[in-house]
Amino acid sequence: MSLLNAARTVARTRAAPRLNAAALSVAARGVHTLPALDYPHDALEPHISGQIMKLHHEGHHKAYVTGLNTAEEAYAKASTPKAKINLLPALKFNGGGHINHTLFWKNLAPVSQGGGDLSQGPLKDALEADFGSVDAFKKKMNTVTAAIQGSGWGWLGYNPSTKKLEVVTTANQDPLLSHVPIIGIDIWEHAFYLQYHNVKAKYLDAIWNVINFKEAERRYIEAAKQ
Ligand SMILES: [Fe+2]
């Protein structure tokens, strides 16, 4: 081995532990990032405006990502149980906001990419079995979601105990834990107010035109396997 190669080998050997330590530090902090959408912000028009989508994605969701990273970093540095407990509300709110919105963007699709189209298959069969018809399911989901007091989410969830699809809700940014989420509808005012003002029912009617049922069916099949 030449002197130059020997020096390079020593340098690599010495540098490796420092790089690993840096990578571990980043992993420990749990750096989350804003996911890109699979479609342009205005691709869901006229059902959800581009202005709403841009603000919702780049403003609101980004704020949850930033808040989650800040809370996780503070939690990692917190040295007492009291200090850690004090951070739990921020972790739940921002973590839930990140989880819910990441799921929400995937459960929407432009009409040109199949949004609103529920083909014959396992999900349609299950909806008809558990709700009587697809229309009855949509009506129940809209009624239950519209009745949420304040901000929250309406969900079509798979109940692993009963093996059935059920409509449930969560408050604020609480993620759905009791069921496997199949379709989520954000009923925070930031999701609809700029376009539909205080008329939640119009937003809830319109959103079915851009629900990505293919993604919902993929989630349903995955959930039903377990
Ligand atoms: Fe939202």
From TrEMBL:
Q: Which organism is it from?
A: Ceriporiopsis subvermispora (strain B)
Instruction: Name any GO cellular component annotation.
Output: mitochondrion
Reaction(s) catalysed (UniProt annotation):
2 superoxide + 2 H(+) = H2O2 + O2
* SUPFAM superfamilies xref list: Fe,Mn superoxide dismutase (SOD), C-terminal domain, Fe,Mn superoxide dismutase (SOD), N-terminal domain
Q: Supply the enzyme class, top level.
A: oxidoreductase
Per the database record, which ranges form the Manganese/iron superoxide dismutase C-terminal domain?
A: 120-219
**Described purpose of this protein according to its UniProt entry:** Destroys radicals which are normally produced within the cells and which are toxic to biological systems.
Keywords, A to Z, come to: Antioxidant, Manganese, Metal-binding, Oxidoreductase
Q: What is its EC number?
A: 1.15.1.1
A GO molecular function held by the record: manganese ion binding
InterPro entries for this protein: Fe/Mn_Superoxide_Dismutase, Mn/Fe_SOD, Mn/Fe_SOD_BS, Mn/Fe_SOD_C, Mn/Fe_SOD_N, Mn/Fe_SOD_N_sf, SOD_C_sf
The Swiss-Prot or TrEMBL record describes its family as follows: Belongs to the iron/manganese superoxide dismutase family.
Q: What is the protein name stated in its UniProt record?
A: Superoxide dismutase
